[in-house]
């Protein structure tokens, strides 16, 4: 590929899954543009069942997503998206995509308990207090953070209430960033059906059907996402720029090896990387900052949402697979911790279980995006 790109495509041929499941169904395509690669998941709905139709993963030598820049998504993404879509044998031209949490705004606000018809007007008046730019420069929307209870009547919205108020999650994406994504996908021959923030994709794929309060810790290549979810709703989202790449660089520097060798050591030894050579707990030293942010998020939930207590941590992302990571997080945080399974409610042939085990954590956001087509939309968009 051009522009210094090198890609490793992995996927299931449509002739395998398509032939098994048939083609008379609704199809949805989720495209996750990550910092180091593209992930595509194709789901199909047949009756009440949702089935994996295909997937593809392409990895890049160059950063596709660059945290902290106005040009979040690089133009080089178009070619890689096009090739990944081709590998997944996608015939649809419309897809679901996400922007990274660090390039967006997610904040909880309180408004007076009110009738449904008045919510939009209240949000219009309140939004400028929380969005630090002109509203004309963003695409924004809101989501009710409810308790899952019944409404008192058709006009009143239930919510996590405190002092007669309800909680609303306000979300915003810069129009400049939205336009960048539309242009990149258009150059790949695709239309974005819906563009959302990746925190919502994570929640949909991992814990939406579980009503208990959870923290999702997504340990990616460049950043960690910490997402608090309760009753299927995102309550809070934090992003820190410490993740798998920082661990690799720390191992390389500490052991005096190149990044390729450090990556091998990381995946082989996990949390014990370097100890066999007399090294210190270098991985846990990197993860200490992540642990502190998880604890801060947990405390913030307790202060903001009365009566909500996080019961479990769900790990995902490439870093979640490091040997000893689950045990380390569980010990440091003091909460039950497990690896999330985005395919728990999705049907697929038993023969590909090894593939799911190996790549499931990489495909979480793409799965959540594809599932978006099969649920009633909760967000109000403007």
Question: Can you walk me through this structure?
Answer:
This protein has 382 residues and is of the alpha/beta class. It is 33% helix and 27% strand. The two termini are 39 Å apart. The N terminus and C terminus are likely disordered.
Report a brief summary of the structure:
With 382 residues, this protein is of the alpha/beta class. The chain is built from eleven helices and 15 strands.
Which key terms come to mind for this protein?
alpha/beta; Dna Ligase, domain 1; 11 helices; Nucleotidyltransferase, domain 5; 6-stranded mixed β-sheet
CATH superfamily of the domain at 210-342: ATPase, nucleotide binding domain
Query: What's the CATH architecture name of the domain at 210-342?
Result: 2-Layer Sandwich
What is the molecular shape?
globular
The largest beta-sheet arranges its strands as 1-4-3-2-5-9
How much of the polypeptide forms β-strand, as a percent range? 25-35%
Largest sheet: 6 strands, mixed
Overall pLDDT score = 82
Helix content class: 25-40%
Tally of separate helices: 11
CATH class category name of the domain at 210-342 = Alpha Beta
Structural class: alpha/beta
Counted beta strands:
15
User: Which spans have pLDDT < 50 for at least 5 consecutive residues?
Assistant: 1-7, 13-25, 147-160, 376-382
* Gyration radius, in Å: 21 Å
Distance between the termini: 39 Å
Which fold name is given in CATH as the topology of the domain at 210-342? Nucleotidyltransferase, domain 5
Order of helices and strands: EHEEEHEEHEEHEHEEEHHHEHEHHE
